[in-house]
Amino acid sequence: MNSSSRPKVAVIDANTLAVLGLKQLLLNIMPIITVDTFGSMAELEANQPDAYMHYFVSMDIVLSNRPFFTERRRKTIVLTLSLSENSQLSDFHSLCINQPEPHLIRQLLQLEQHAHGQGQHLPPTPQILQHKILTDREIEVMALIVQGYINKEIADRLNIGLTTVITHRKNIMEKLGMKSVSALTIYAVMHGYVDINKI
Questions:
Q1: Contacts of 64 (CB under 8 A, 6+ apart)
Q2: So what's the pLDDT on residue 71?
Q3: Over the stretch 70-79, which tens digit does the pLDDT of each residue have?
């Protein structure tokens, strides 16, 4: 799939660290998208703003450019610093970026599944990613890992030895090329191995 046919997402925020972190999380959740980052509204406007499927925008930029984003509110996700209902704009979807990584990932996955459940509005996944990579046992172990079980609990639940669990865990991470439980959680939810409500 060439990059011109990929859905495009814009992240607009003056905080460079927040922008880069969110870009990486979005690419982990939806590797088939292109994420462009902008430090200001002027930068976005200079780069075909209507070419984007979604905008992830800081609250202050939305407030100072309200007519633009109100017209595109279904495509706009406002980045907030608090989970409080009072700190969110009622007309828009919100994403609190000031929370622990597992919670942020869960909220991003919920947004993605709400908007694009069963992959609607998204291009098909590349053929290579559709093949089953893990064995049935590895899938069972992965599902328990992302639900928060520790190695000993996984061994007890699956009636296997602790060293076997550790070996499966190592193999899963190597096969998928992942280094963190957060990345594994994203993979498990996006591929339907774990219900988002169980993480």
A1: 41
A2: 95
A3: 999 999 999 9
